[in-house]
């Protein structure tokens, strides 16, 4: 088996993980006590990817739950899926990070990190063939950004040849009242770019807009956003958890999606997304309609405009009784009709995977991971918010009081700016290729 150790970090990470475990337990027919109750062998075949079998054929999530304050861990234990988890792998601090990166990275988190690493080692040692680590966290919080990046740094040092993948939540002013989020986000991204292999970025701004426009929720709350994120996470992990026509894993995604070492930020998308008012059961869902939704900015979980985007690479993961021929034809049509959206210097830059097992709600769905220049729109939004506060040194004393220096803030900002510049230069290279191609076509026509 190619097992994955799952790490849920901070309040946001544990809230999302609760929904994620609830969803995949339902898909694999695992009840609240951890016992398999399905009739088919298909959901049972690859249970060991995310679950380990304990006594009495009880399946326990292969995860480590961490928070620097005890409240969220206590709530997780009392949740509908709380009985699934092994209490030994649920770690809580006493004082919390107080939405402060430096507390999570240097003081409170540093005191607890050895305990977290020990639990991760134990989970890894219980694997037959460890594929890698996945972490879900928010880069706007103190624990998620500070301790999350510290944990990834330590795991990278110990497991150099394993794949590290994160599901990172980008903050938005629409659904948060934490004023220090831009500091935490910039500092967190600057650390993760050196330690993680794949970063799947969920923009709270876009999730909020999707919930209002597509799902028609008048006032989306964190629970609504977490459900949307967990549905997408389940889609991304489908081909790890089930056999299918065209399979993939963490390493294949990394190899096919990252053209350059630092360009490894993926924007997810999910389709179909319809509210109960739209009567989805009365519509015919086809591969073509799903592909059109997947590549529409309205269904992508990042807030950007069409003209901001140049797609370098992408991976589309389909679920349900889907013909591989239909998928290939839909992708070819898309690339032909919207060729200006795709980078021309990377031929065949769409990777597809198909799993025959549909989600429980619909007959067919798809999840998209796209490595696109549109991520720079989000980064520049964070940089702008960061600059406004840093110019006046607002809230700096909370960070310097924990041992940080101003130079670390400047360094973090420069790293994120460099990533934006690298995406821009890559797209400029593609524009140069387009110009050369146009000139050659003109010469051919003259001849």
Give a summary of the structure in a few sentences:
The chain is of the alpha/beta class.
Topology at a glance:
Elements: E1 3-9, H1 10-27, H2 42-45, E2 51-53, E3 59-61, E4 63-67, H3 70-77, E5 90-92, H4 101-105, H5 108-125, E6 130-138, H6 142-158, E7 163-170, H7 181-195, E8 198-203, H8 204-213, H9 222-236, H10 238-241, H11 250-257, E9 265-271, H12 287-294, E10 311-320, H13 324-337, E11 350-355, E12 364-372, H14 375-391, H15 396-400, H16 406-446
Parallel strand pairs: 1-4, 1-6, 4-5, 6-7, 7-8, 8-9, 10-11
Antiparallel strand pairs: 2-3, 9-12, 10-12
List keywords for this structure.
ten-stranded mixed beta sheet; globular; 46% helix; 16 helices; alpha/beta; 447 residues; 12 strands
Structural class: alpha/beta
Largest sheet: 10 strands, mixed
Strand order within the widest beta sheet: 5-4-1-6-7-8-9-12-10-11
Low-pLDDT windows of residues: 437-447
**Percentage beta strand:** 15-25%
Number of helices: 16
SSE run:
EHHEEEHEHHEHEHEHHHHEHEHEEHHH
Mean pLDDT: 89
- Give the N-to-C terminal Cα separation: 59 Å
Helix content: 40-55%
Radius of gyration computed on alpha carbons? 22 Å
The coarse silhouette is: globular
Q: How does this model look, in words?
A:
This protein has helices at 10-27, 42-45, 70-77, 101-105, 108-125, 142-158, 181-195, 204-213, 222-236, 238-241, 250-257, 287-294, 324-337, 375-391, 396-400, 406-446; strands at 3-9, 51-53, 59-61, 63-67, 90-92, 130-138, 163-170, 198-203, 265-271, 311-320, 350-355, 364-372. It is 46% helix and 17% strand. A 10-stranded mixed beta sheet has the order 5-4-1-6-7-8-9-12-10-11, with helices on both faces. The protein has a two-stranded antiparallel sheet with strand order 2-3. It is built from 16 helices and 12 strands. The protein is globular and about 60 Å long. With 447 residues, the chain is α/β, with parallel strands linked by helices.
